[in-house]
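During the reporting period the student researcher (J.K.) took over the structure-prediction task from the postdoctoral fellow and processed the backlog of single-chain submissions. One of the processed entries is reproduced below for the supervisory committee.
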Amino acid sequence: MEIKKICVLGAGLMGNGIAQVCAQAGYEVALRDIEQRFIDGGMNTIKKNLSRDAEKGKITKGEMEAILGRIKPTLDLKEAASDADVVVEVV
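J.K. obtained the following structure tokens:
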């Protein structure tokens, strides 16, 4: 079975890190949490980390945008997990 989409349940410290690493590895990622503020916080952390990597020359701005494009934040559990090949619970 080929893994294409990963669902990460929980956008906190570990969850956003797992989502970022998976997206950097080329996987589509659904990042789900129970409140928008948690999703926003997780996505802001990912953006900050990727921006720092771009400033250091580890990735290009284009790569940063592609990585962010592979992460789909959502509050909807069914949307996040229904077609996922792997589900990671980090709550």
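The committee noted the following: Residues 46 and 76 are 20 Å apart (CA to CA).
J.K. will present the remaining backlog at the next meeting.
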